[in-house]
Structure formats: structure tokens, C-alpha cells
Amino acid sequence: MQLQIFTVDAFAKKPFSGNQAAVVPLTQNLDDATMQKIASEMNLSETSYLLPLNADGPDAWTTCSQFSLRWFTPVSEIVLCGHATLAAAHVLFQNLENANRKLEFQTLSGTLLARKEGDLILLDFPENEPVSLTSEEERELSPLVEAALGEAKGKARTVSISRALKYLMVQVDDSCTRHDLEAIRPDARAMERLHDGSRVKAVIVCVKGRPEEEEEEAKEGERKKYDVRSRFFAPWYGVDEDPVTGSAHTVLGPFWSRRLGKKELLCHQCSPRGGEVIVKTRGDGRVDLIGQAVTVISGHINL
């Protein structure tokens, strides 16, 4: 069997930035073991699988607006992934020439929508606002926070959790700069030793944007005023650091929207690859994640 496969840089305006995802359009169901093997072979943070619903034949990819969508890391299937959803929508719109302006994905997190808006793609996702830890959780997870922050452990100000996603969110002091955030060196192996993944599957470290750190966008010459900067660590998913994480912004968006009093946020995930996400909190339990994507590789995989 031969399958089409694409690699896409999501939340990116140009190749070799943002977050990589593989996208595999399927014409029939694959068993879970094979999908996991392909994801392990690709060894990207996520590989996504698309299957048209209620449509078949050669025109399905251009006419169908409803798809099954699943996401696999190199080690397991996950319940929600933003950048691989953006990548899947991009492949449908750009590579497979889907004629619809809006697409619907059936996933483990329910129905997700993607809408084309010029060069941008808007994702309609569930909100995952974090809540405060219980006293028991604080005691249990304090060593994990220290392992994630390393020498910056004294900078932690609030620690909260998205129970739906099992994402621990650590807000560091507003005095921390972008360079302070980029300098954090988590001990991923210690994080795995300290916690079995039952309560926490990933750690978000975030800080309020600083106006004095506005950056020149080299290509466009415009200045960026980021509201929030973050990094994302998920060794329990086989991803020590994820470059740009859409699902993390379903947690960051509602938290920082309340704190900053803004419905629309410009967020920068400052991993070595880096990327930006526009987040709009809607007040109805949903958030819009907005970004761009670029196809870098297209080809076939032989099974």
C-alpha cells in the first residue's frame, strides 16, 4: 500500500520555523498499530490522519467538508493537537485543493472547525481554562515544577492545571524577559522520574509580554507587541519541547485574557524554531486559534 504524506510547518509564515507535523490523507481506515508506527517513523511531535466522512471517490478530497482526524506523537495517540489540525486544514486547502471555505473535523475532543481567512486559517477549539492546584497537588507536583524551571525555579508565581488536557501551567514573574524564558533548561528525564504522567502530561511555562521587547519582523519590517510568551515541555508524550503548541493556547488564552483584560492576544512560543498564535477568547467556552502554515515536503509512504 502507498499513501500520500505531507510535512507542514504550522504557525509559521516560512519554512523551517513554527511546528512540524506530518499529514496523511487516508482512503480507508488504518489500524492503530500501523498509525503509531508511521508516527514513530516520522518522529515529529505529531502525525495527523485524515479520512473523508460521507464521501468517497476521487473527488472526495476536493468536495468533502467533514473528516475524521486523529493525532499521534512518536509514542502515543493524543486527545487534542492544534498545530497538526492547522497542518491538516492547510493540506486540504492548499495541497488537495478542497473547495470549501470551512472544514469540520471529528476528533477525540469533539467537533473542531477550521475556516480559511485569506492567508490565515482559524481553528475553533474548546477552551481549557486552568484551575488552581489542590494542597495535595501542590505537594506532589512541586518537585516537577522545580525540574521544569531549573535555575529559574525561584521565579514561579502561580501554578495551575488544565485537568481536561493534564497540562500544568507555570506563570513566572513579570520581571522575566524573553531571554530568561529561553534560558530555561528543564531536566526532561528528571521530570519523567518525578511523575508518572497520571496527573500531568505536559508543562507550560509562560510570562507576560514586555513592551520594551518588541521585535523587528525581518521580512515585513513591522513591530510585534506580544501579550504572552511561553514554552511547552511534554516528555511523557515523547516530546521534550514542542516548538509551537496550539492546544497549550487553549489554556493560555482564557488565563491571560482575564489577567490582561483583552479578548484577543498575540502569543509567541519562543522555542528555538519559534512561532506565533493569535488567540481570541469568545466567552462561550470556545477559543479561536489563528495562524499560517507552509508545506515543506510532499511524497509517499510505502507500507
Descriptors:
19 strands; 303 residues; 17-stranded mixed β-sheet; 2 domains; isomerase; alpha+beta; Putative phenazine biosynthesis-like domain-containing protein; two-stranded antiparallel ribbon; 7 helices; Diaminopimelate Epimerase, Chain A, domain 1
Tell me what the structure shows.
The chain is of the alpha+beta class and 303 residues long. It has two domains: 135 residues, Diaminopimelate Epimerase, Chain A, domain 1 (Roll); 152 residues, Diaminopimelate Epimerase, Chain A, domain 1. Helices cover 24% and strands 38% of the residues. It has a 17-stranded mixed sheet that branches. Helix 4 runs antiparallel to helix 6. The longest helix is centred in the middle third of the chain and has 15 residues. The protein is globular, with a radius of gyration of 19 Å. It starts with a strand and ends with a strand. The relative contact order is 0.18. About 2% of the residues have low confidence.
Secondary structure blueprint with pairings:
Elements: E1 2-10, E2 19-25, H1 32-42, E3 46-52, H2 60-63, E4 66-72, E5 77-78, H3 82-95, E6 102-107, E7 110-117, E8 120-126, E9 131-132, H4 135-149, E10 156-162, E11 167-172, H5 178-183, H6 188-194, E12 202-208, E13 215-216, E14 223-224, E15 228-233, H7 246-260, E16 264-269, E17 275-281, E18 286-291, E19 293-302
Parallel strand pairs: 2-3, 4-6, 11-12, 15-16
Antiparallel strand pairs: 1-2, 1-19, 3-4, 4-5, 6-7, 7-8, 8-18, 9-10, 10-11, 12-15, 13-14, 16-17, 17-18
Organism: Penaeus vannamei
Active site: 46
Pfam families: PhzC-PhzF (PF02567)
